[in-house]
Specification:
Helices cover 34% and strands 28% of the residues. The protein is built from 19 helices and 36 strands. The two termini are 62 Å apart. The protein is α+β, with helices and mostly antiparallel strands and 652 residues long. It binds one RNA strand of 77 nucleotides through strand 14, strand 15, helix 7, strand 28 and helix 15.
RNA sequence: GCCACUGUAGCUUAGCUCGGUAUAGCGUCUGAUUCGUAAUCAGAAGAUCGGGAGUUCAAAUCUCCCCAGUGGCUCCA
């Protein structure tokens, strides 16, 4: 007999040889919803045999661990279906991921119809309720099992000497190398859906084999799956590409070129408001502004290190009579020359040089996406020239600036990342190992001091130094960098930066901080649009007030209201066409004005307005002067909430 | 850059499997209507079906090559 701790302080006696699943069924019943078990805290199959005293705890299908097991098993199910239908396909790896799983196969690419057929086959395998059983093998027998699959052999080669990979899982005729655990049988896998296929490289190495990746989602319940589908539908509605088209924020035209968006009047308003805000903020922080050319000579980018380290990211050179010119991918080389344009004194440091301008980067064509990833990057950029002693407070100011910006724009879902160099891959970076280590430690110390939560990421540094990146997750779950604060220890030597210190001698210890707290305007507006679903706060709304007349009689009062708003700097439009009121409201909703104002007899007679909020609630009989004053206040304070109509501030 | 998928009026979209030069709604324009909070009525214009080549008596539809978009991989703000 063995003594099993079944949780809640309860201990049961069983005869040795009982399985974890039988214990769970005995304690929690047949419908426990468990997919596997923790045996002494380790994830095990339900079929795991217990032969000594231990603790057993069910892993529920809707727990984090349970859904990963479910998704992992679903990946095996996919591999089984694929290898049955395409016998030449070689399964490689197939891990669980958030919301689902994927599996990479070495095979010919498949069409959408074939994807549907695979899903159908998976459902058939589920109906057959195949047992999923674990098999232990020694190295040799494991190798002979997978002798026709070089990918599995390569995985085993990497794991020689370790216990991991000594097991395989079998379901029907299909067997896969796997550590497990798995659900007991295919019938546990009901709520899944294959979503897409794509290409991936074996071992994420573009010089290795190209594989077909199939993605799917998988949940423990029908509701879970439905909720995920609903979330994705909801996300599609917030897509900045869709809203950007409807609200006429930007356009992309093939004839101009891919990755080169054109800001339309409404988008230009958003961009302008963001930039205006940045100029005000930076003035308060002691920045000075410059404008530099969009291109420069090859020698400049050689000096900066761009051509040795970043040439792939730049547009190719233009041949001129006096040499080769490149479009700038970054502003820093220009700003360095602004700094060294004259002899600087320690009294001038920290010197903060800002520029609102556009840089051009040759991003890989396959990565371009709406405004989120472009080749034209409009940036509120700046470089801070300072001594090592001043780095901490300058970085701290910028972290604060970022936090203040995000709070003003309503962003709350982001995290800090300390992006470090990869010492294993030094050719990507400027080769000064001691400086990398010391500046990285410096940044780490500053973040710790500030008490900011952050994650560290090796290999994410810029070529010239470590950085603090602020990371966001897109609607589709992809992580993107927004703001960045970068420390550059190499510029001082490359550009001979120096200043005259307190002792009167030339001091070359100039540190440069590169920072773009608002990301690029393209990416920022994409996030902003998705965050607010186009329902921007009043100060950002391209149309702040849309006036709608009820009939011809009301044109005059509408014009009076419009000019009063216009005089106060409010962006206002009038629709006095002969459509019905309902029709006009419907038409203008797609432009998402902060407020609509209805003008009819009542308003004309009393000199008031009737305000309609985005959610349809309204406030009648507001005196014109009061309306102008309150919307003016809402705009100038950059209020995130639309509060002119009671109840409407709940709509964000 | 790599792989797959997609590409029909400004927008959404039918037709494509089984070839016979295209369907509808919204929007636009014109006329009527002057109307109180998510579609007033009628009429008109608008598409060489992403581009090019091929097969065919005939191509939106079949084949090939480009281009662009989308999803991923790699890369990155």
């Amino acid at each position: 007999m063995i003594n099993v701790d079944v949780g809640n302080g309860e201990h049961h006696e069983y005869s040795a040889g009982i399985t974890a699943g039988e214990v769970i069924e005995n304690v929690h019943g047949r419908r426990s919803g468990a997919v596997a078990a923790f045996v002494d805290g380790t994830e095990r199959d339900m079929s795991h045999v217990l032969d000594s005293d231990c603790s057993v705890e069910p892993i529920s299908g809707d727990s984090d661990e349970g859904s990963y097991i479910l998704r992992h098993s679903c990946a095996h199910l996919l591999a089984q279906a694929v290898t049955e239908m395409f016998p030449e396909a070689k399964p490689t790896i197939g891990p669980p991921i958030d919301h689902g799983f994927y599996y990479d196969f070495h095979m010919d690419s498949i069409s959408e119809d074939e994807l549907k057929a695979i899903e159908k086959r998976m459902k058939e395998l589920v109906k057959r309720n195949l047992q999923i059983s674990r098999e232990e093998h020694d190295n040799d027998s494991l190798r002979s099992l997978f002798s026709d699959n070089p990918f599995k052999i390569e995985i085993m080669d990497d794991k020689i000497g370790s216990d991991v990979g000594s097991s395989a899982y079998r379901q029907g005729d299909f067997i896969d190398l796997c550590r497990g655990p798995h659900v007991p049988s295919t019938s546990h896998l009901r709520w899944f859906k294959l979503t897409s296929t794509s290409q991936a490289y074996w071992r994420a190495d573009k010089n290795r084999e190209s594989l077909v990746r199939i993605y799917g989602m998988c949940y423990s319940t029908k509701e879970g799956l439905k909720e995920r589908v609903r979330q994705l539908d909801e996300a599609a509605k917030r897509d900045h590409k869709k809203i950007g088209r409807e609200m006429e924020l930007y356009m992309i035209n093939e004839m101009i070129g891919k990755g080169l968006p054109v800001w339309l009047p409404n988008g230009e308003i958003l961009k302008g408001e963001i930039e205006k805000f940045a100029v005000e903020t930076e003035e308060a922080y002691g920045y000075v502004r410059v404008t530099t050319p969009v291109l420069g000579k090859k020698e400049l980018f050689e000096a900066s290190g761009h051509l040795p380290h970043y040439a792939d990211g730049m547009y190719p050179p233009m041949e001129m009579d006096d040499g080769e010119y490149y479009l700038k991918a970054m502003n820093c080389p220009f700003h360095h020359l602004v700094f060294s344009n004259k002899k600087r004194s320690y009294r001038e440091l920290p010197m903060r040089i800002a520029e609102y301008g556009t840089v051009y980067r040759n991003e890989l064509s396959g990565t371009l996406a709406g405004l989120l990833r472009v080749r034209m990057l409009s940036m509120n950029d700046a470089h801070i020239y300072c001594t090592l002693d001043q780095v901490a407070s300058e970085v701290a100011d910028n972290v604060r600036m970022v936090q203040d910006y995000y709070s003003a724009f309503g962003f709350d879902d982001y995290h800090f990342r300390l992006s470090l160099w990869d010492p294993e891959n030094t050719e990507k970076y400027i080769d000064q190992p001691e400086n990398w280590e010391s500046t990285q430690n410096h940044l780490r110390g500053i973040l710790d001091e500030l008490g900011v939560d952050y994650v560290e990421a090796v290999g994410e540094a810029a070529f010239y130094g470590p950085k603090i990146d602020i990371q966001f997750t897109t609607l589709l779950g992809r992580e993107e960098s927004m703001s960045t604060i970068q420390l550059d220890f190499a510029a001082k030597e490359r550009f001979g930066l120096s200043y005259t210190d307190e002792t009167g001698s030339d001091n070359g210890e100039v540190f440069v901080i590169h920072r773009a707290p608002l990301s690029t305007h393209e990416r920022f507006v994409a996030f902003l649009t998705e965050h607010w679903a186009g329902n921007f706060p009043t100060w950002l709304s391209p149309v702040q007030v849309q006036i709608i007349t009820i009939s011809e009689k009301h044109k005059v009062h509408a014009a009076t209201v419009a000019s009063a708003l216009y005089e106060s700097g409010v962006r206002v439009k009038v629709d006095d066409s002969d459509n019905t009121v309902g029709k006009k409201i419907r038409n203008h909703r797609k432009m998402k004005p902060a407020y609509m104002v209805i003008i009819g007899d009542e308003e004309t007679d009393s000199g008031t307005v009737s305000i309609r909020s985005r959610d349809g609630s309204q406030k009648k009989g507001v005196p014109l002067f009061d309306f102008v004053a309150s919307i003016f206040a809402e705009i100038t304070t950059r209020d995130r909430r639309l509060s002119l109509v009671p109840g409407s501030d709940e709509v964000e």
